[in-house]
Specification:
It is found in: Cell membrane; Early endosome membrane; Late endosome membrane; Lysosome membrane. Keywords: Antiport, ATP-binding, CBS domain, Cell membrane, Chloride, Endosome, Glycoprotein, Ion transport, Lysosome, Membrane, Nucleotide-binding, Repeat, Transmembrane, Transmembrane helix, Transport. The structure is a single chain. This protein has 795 residues and is α/β, with parallel strands linked by helices. The protein is built from 31 helices and 14 strands. It folds into three domains: 218 residues, Clc chloride channel (Orthogonal Bundle), CATH 1.10.3080; 226 residues, Orthogonal Bundle (Clc chloride channel); 155 residues, CBS-domain, CATH 3.10.580. Helix 15 runs parallel beside helix 20 and helix 24 packs antiparallel against helix 25.
Length: 795
């Protein structure tokens, strides 16, 4: 009896595409219906096999490049949940099914975390080995990289700890000599050869097997999490090719990182595992909860920062983030970090290569250079976004964009040729950041620390307090300045290539180089002018007052913040990288300054700029709508447009309905009582109508082109010789969102953002006037910003 009442409830939120189809007339009228002529007397009784007693396969699903209906998806999930709860007391099997359903969320994020951690470890190990392959090979064990090769050697010296007999450069293998111009030229040639080989293989694999595997992936993931459908973007092929080509792209030496693409890899894992659980595979809104948790796991393994990963998902990528998703994101990040720690890809018992700890406190006066680094980060971010978007737009609009393989080869060749002579650009960018972050100590043999060995010597401060910096430091500073210019230029042209390319590591490298230069300059200033009032109070002669590595870390955070406009999550990620609570204030000061300076030139981060460049229908929650327009100014049809395509509730035939569908490109149609009254009944989606008609023709006899289509509860009165009518009430949304024509657009935009609507109907005194879609709002916002409305829409 309870089930009958539920089925007959006219106030169920959605009867289209859900698990329960509330057909009121079924219990009352049985399986017969009467066709009568004008007099109203029953002339014949026909058996009706009402195919709508079960959900129609395919109804409630979405086409590629369409936006999901969040409200409908949430209603479907509530209905599914109610059904499971009502049945769980019937038997032990139903109770087990309800437990499985409750735990499936935790199970899917656990599997996602395990897969993300394992793939991240695999990528780290493979990228390190292939990166060292450009310089030489380990004869004792081919699968060892340079560092691992020399671990067991007893013939290394402290000064040249990276040289051992087991590791042979290509010049030693081919020419038999390790020194001299010939060996340098041979090593140079092999470096370029391997770089071009890796880049060529990466771009070919992407182009042939998985075009979606290129780029960072974060702009598309933000768009997908906002409700957009991009079929195949998170599929098996994309995952496989992205994992392989990410290793190749990083090893090729291009100015890119693997951290952004790791978020894409983790989201692919989350999407694939969600298909194992009907709760997520059949509901697009629930699937996006898994993807939010997956993106947290991706950042967790990219930076070894589980909490930073959760905050990144919340602040940067997620559109809908309920509390249970926060817990599951935290758990996924925890599992992923645990797996990566178990693999230990870098051999340092840390989750990242450039983990560092500082022991010197910072002083209040140092906030000035920290804020200046924040200004530099904001200026760099604004410059990079404009330059990179201009280049990507040029690539889209010219013939150059038709040759992605040639472009990758060209950029890889220039990068390799220019990078090899400079040791700071030749080495892997993660290793460069590690060297720049590292505090100079007695165990450091870096060129950046040469002067320290004398400054900190037993007689440095007593015999000759004005000990000059070593010549090696000056050459290192010149090389760092050249590396900074090289990285700035190459990163602009590299981000957006048709290979997996992240932006986190190149941005951090640029900031770390600038920060290290400022840090060394400050250190020398404090050393030579310790009697200045700025240093006198807190910097004693002979003490280590300034930590250049800390400046590098602050600069890295500032530059990454300038490009992405992240704040809270970025500070936490960098804090987790360093393990030092006392440096949070310098980081916060630099990151906030960077954001303010960047926002002064434009409020968009790089990911939002690429979303707009690609024309994805993404309503950014950070963007304020400040105009005073009304709903009637934005709705369609405009005065110059043809009338709005509508369906009447009970006087269309199948042929007329198919004609309306074929003649228009609308994704849905308002259903009205009649053309005269224009009173709104509901809203039906184009895809659902098409599927329902095809399904009825397969399963029902007597459905013809002149069959009457009705969206009402009861069949209309028809002549006796009429063909069987087609009932489409179950696919009708009986409660579409409506606003009046005088509603301010500010409120309409807020409704679209917070409820994730696809469309909203505009009425006046209950009569239908028009429709506003998500694309209409985006076009209107572009128009208000003096942009071409059509140029920003996805095609």
């Amino acid at each position: 009896m309870e089930e009958e009442d539920a089925a007959a409830d006219p106030y169920l939120p959605y009867d289209g595409g859900g698990d329960t189809i509330p057909l009121q007339e079924i219990p009352r009228r049985g399986s017969n219906y009467a066709m009568s002529n004008g007099g109203g007397a029953a002339s014949s009784t026909t058996h009706l096999l009402d195919f709508l007693e079960e959900p129609i396969p395919g109804v409630g699903t979405y086409d590629d490049f369409h936006t999901i209906d969040w409200v409908r998806e949430k209603c479907k999930d509530r209905e599914r949940h109610r059904k499971i709860n009502s049945k769980k007391k019937e038997s032990a099997w139903e109770f087990t099914k309800s437990l499985y359903d409750a735990w499936s969320g935790w199970l899917v994020v656990t599997l996602t975390g395990l897969a993300s951690g394992a793939l991240a470890g695999l990528i780290d190990i493979a990228a390190d080995w292939m990166n060292d392959l450009k310089e030489g090979v380990c004869l004792s064990a081919m699968w060892f990289n340079h560092e691992q090769c020399c671990w067991t050697s007893n013939e290394t010296t402290f000064a040249e700890r990276d040289k051992c007999p087991q590791w042979k450069s290509w010049a030693e293998l081919i020419l038999g000599q390790a020194e001299g111009p010939g060996s340098y030229i041979m090593n140079y040639f092999m470096y370029i050869y391997w770089a071009l080989s890796f880049a060529f293989l990466a771009v070919c694999l992407v182009k042939v097997f998985a075009p979606y595997a290129c780029g960072s992936g974060i702009p598309e993931i933000k768009t997908i999490l906002s409700g957009f459908i991009i079929r195949g973007y998170l599929g098996k092929w994309t995952l496989m090719i992205k994992t392989i080509t990410l290793v190749l792209a990083v090893a090729s030496g291009l100015s890119l990182g693997k951290e952004g693409p790791l978020v894409h890899v983790a989201c692919c894992c989350g999407n694939i595992f969600s298909y194992l659980f009907p709760k997520y595979s059949k509901n697009e809104a629930k699937k996006r909860e898994v993807l939010s948790a997956a993106s947290a796991a991706g950042v967790s393994v990219a930076f070894g920062a589980p909490i930073g990963g959760v905050l990144f998902s919340l602040e940067e990528v997620s559109y809908y983030f309920p509390l249970k998703t926060l817990w599951r994101s935290f758990f996924a990040a925890l599992v992923a970090a645990f797996v990566l720690r178990s693999i230990n890809p870098f051999g340092n018992s840390r989750l990242v290569l450039f983990y560092v700890e500082y022991h010197t406190p910072w002083y209040l006066f140092e906030l000035i250079p920290f804020i200046l680094l924040g200004v530099f980060g904001g200026l760099w971010g604004a410059f990079f976004i404009r330059a990179n978007i201009a280049w990507c737009r040029r690539r889209k609009s010219t013939r150059f964009g038709k040759y992605p393989v040639l472009e990758v080869i060209l950029v890889a060749a220039i990068t390799a040729v220019v990078a090899f002579p400079n040791p700071y650009t030749r080495q892997n960018t993660s290793e460069l950041i590690k060297e720049l972050f590292t505090d100079c100590g007695p165990l450091e043999s870096s060129q950046l620390c040469q002067y320290r060995s004398q400054m900190n010597g037993s007689t440095a401060y007593t015999d000759n307090p004005n000990q000059p910096a070593e010549p090696g430091l000056y050459s290192a500073m010149w090389q760092l300045c050249l590396a900074l210019i090289f990285k700035i230029i190459m990163t602009i042209f590299t981000f957006g290539l048709k290979v997996p390319s992240g932006l986190f590591i190149p941005s951090m490298a640029i900031g770390a180089i600038a920060g290290r230069i400022v840090g060394i300059a400050m250190e020398q200033l404090a050393y030579y002018h310790h009697d200045w009032f700025l240093f006198k109070e807190w910097c004693e002669v002979g003490a280590d007052c300034i930590t250049p590595g800390l400046y590098a870390m602050v600069g890295a955070a500032a530059c990454l913040g300038g490009v992405t406009r992240m704040t809270v999550s970025l500070v936490v990620i960098v804090f987790e990288l360093t393990g030092g609570l006392e440096y949070i204030v310098p980081l916060m000061a630099a990151v906030m300054t960077s954001k303010w300076v960047g926002d002064a030139f434009g409020r968009e981060g790089i990911y939002e700029a690429h979303i707009r460049l690609n024309g994805y229908p993404f309503l950014d929650a950070k963007e304020e709508f400040t105009h005073t327009t009304l709903a009637r100014d934005v709705m369609r049809p405009r005065s110059s447009d043809p009338p709005l395509a509508v369906l009447t509730q009970d006087d269309l035939t199948v042929e007329e309905l198919q004609g309306i569908i074929n003649e228009t490109s609308c994704n849905g149609f308002p259903v009205i009582v009649s053309k005269e009254s224009q009173r709104l009944v509901g809203f039906a989606l184009r895809r659902d109508i098409t599927i329902a008609i095809e399904n009825a023709r397969r399963k029902q006899e007597g459905i013809m082109l002149n069959s009457r289509v009705y969206f009402t509860q009861h069949a209309p009165t028809l002549p006796a010789d009429s063909p069987r009518p087609l009932k489409l009430r179950s696919i009708l949304d009986m409660s579409p969102f409506t606003v009046t024509d005088h509603t301010p657009m500010e409120i309409v935009v807020d409704i679209f953002r917070k409820l994730g609507l696809r469309q909203c109907l505009v009425t006046h005194n209950g009569r239908l006037l028009g429709i506003i879609t998500k694309k209409d709002i985006l076009r209107h916002m572009a128009q208000m910003a003096n942009q071409d409305p059509e140029s920003i829409m996805f095609n």
